[in-house]
Write a structure and sequence with these properties.
Keywords: ATP-binding, Cytoplasm, Kinase, Nucleotide-binding, Transferase. 55% of the residues lie in helices and 11% in strands. It is of the alpha/beta class. Helix 3 packs across helix 5.
């Protein structure tokens, strides 16, 4: 059954999950499959962190970070520097500031309103609570650390697996315990564990799950 036959348009899919669980690559593939746009919301926070640091500020300064977030330039989200390990850690620190999250809320909701797959940490719980389908992607910490290690080494970064795992554990704790929009599955989210799945297998599993949800809604 086609997408248009299964559900109304625009279609919104919320993909939340832990760092390096594969949700970003999965979301891109899902967006292509369903013919909608994709937004990696984590890049918004990375861009804020990048611009704060470039201006000589501190990622711990909520006021400065929020001001930059309110005028973020979406055309810079493809900057390869945003995928670096340093930007990942800085983004995690910027994202704990409530004013920063508030400043980026409208941008994300406006993007979703046109039909999209959004991935991040609070899409199903805060950004798109009425999304057609919500996924929560996770994997064992050691597996995620290995994936991130290989990614960073591929970028030419001099890191160790131990340091990557330590950083990942710290980020998990910070994401799950922040006061505003902590990382957690939405009550109606569907869990996808990618620990033992290749990206192709994860995409196939996600499509089967999403289609089942959309079919059930169309029939209900």
């Amino acid at each position: 059954m086609t997408k248009t036959a299964m559900t109304k348009t625009p279609l919104t899919i919320a993909v939340d999950g832990t760092f390096s669980s594969g949700k970003g690559t999965l979301s891109k593939r899902l967006a292509t499959h369903y013919g909608v746009a994709h937004l990696d919301t984590g890049k918004l926070y990375r861009a804020v962190a990048r611009d704060v640091l470039a201006a000589g500020g501190s990622v711990d300064d909520a006021k400065t970070a929020a001001k930059i977030a309110s005028s973020i330039d979406a055309s810079t989200l493809d900057d390869p520097f945003l995928k670096s390990g340093g930007m990942g850690s800085a983004a995690s620190k910027v994202s704990v500031h409530p004013p920063v999250r508030a400043a980026l809320l409208a941008f994300q909701r406006d993007f979703a309103a046109k039909g999209a797959v959004l991935d991040g940490r609070d899409i199903g719980t805060v950004i798109c609570p009425d999304a057609d389908v919500k996924l929560f992607v996770d994997a064992d910490q050691e597996v995620r650390a290995e994936r991130r290690y290989k990614e960073l080494r591929g970028y030419g970064e001099d890191v160790t697996l131990e340091s990557v795992l330590s950083d990942l554990r710290e980020r998990d704790h910070r994401d799950m315990n922040r006061a505003v929009a902590p990382l957690k599955p939405a009550v109606d989210a569907h869990l996808l564990d990618t620990t033992h799945l290749s990206i192709d297998a994860a995409v196939s599993s996600a499509i089967i799950l999403i289609d089942a949800v959309l079919n059930a809604k169309a029939q209900g």
